[in-house]
Amino acid sequence: MSHLEKEITQWFAKNKRDLPWRKTTPWGVLVSEIMLQQTPVSRVEPIWHIWMKRWPTPKDLAKATPAEVIKEWGRLGYPRRALRLRECAQVIATDFNNKVPDNEIQLRKLPGIGDYTAAAVMAFAFQERSLVLDINIRRLFSRIYDGVQSPTAAPNKRERAARAELVPKKSAHVWAAATMELGALICTAQKPKCEICPVANSCKWRSLNYPQSDQPKRTQAWNGTDRQCRGIIVQALRENDSLTEKELKKLWLLESQVEKALKTLLADGLITQSARNKYSLPS
Description:
Blueprint: H1 3-15, H2 26-35, H3 41-54, H4 58-62, H5 66-73, H6 80-95, H7 104-108, H8 115-126, H9 135-144, H10 157-164, H11 172-185, H12 204-207, H13 226-239, E1 243-244, H14 245-249, H15 255-267, E2 272-273, E3 278-280
Antiparallel strand pairs: 1-3, 2-3
């Protein structure tokens, strides 16, 4: 065990959060990983509990209607993830005897599951060795090993190869969880807590006096965006069985933006339109 691995895993043993998906089924892990995409833990935790109580296995979710899963998704955002998760459940229930596959290649073939999610499920559901690279781990490693404040938008081949060499032969899943937790709680994007970091003395970024990344910070605007408009429409349809276009236009300042949002929501299968021109969640 390397010095860094020992320091980080010992810190993790003492400081890890008591997250419910750390003591659940492989299905519970998969659900949490889909929900946690671009969404903070604090918002995911209450919704995850509701989903796992209502749909404790893939077969249970497979029987749900699109409207039911969109309603229970609540305000997590990116509700297409809810529909992909339902599709994923249908495939697992039908093709894998209601069990999440413990094979990374099979996982990647499931709806809505990419490289990161497949690797995370292998590590956290099955305690298998895999290359888990979420943004927290990538930021931690870019600072410790490269002396760079922020990683690139997505990992390239060189980064993957370099990080694969860091994955220990034993207890790789603990290393994945520990580095993710250290990135999330201590080596944060803004105002990292270097004074209490267990590996601060080994950090290249710190030794170079914290050089700033020259890449522009990506900030996602929200107010007035098409995404916000879509979210307001979906929320209104969660709260009402159906609404007319006229009723929906009262919820937003720009009528043309509502018209555009309705078109894209229909195309994404998140809403339906009746013969009487009323909109509702898909049944």
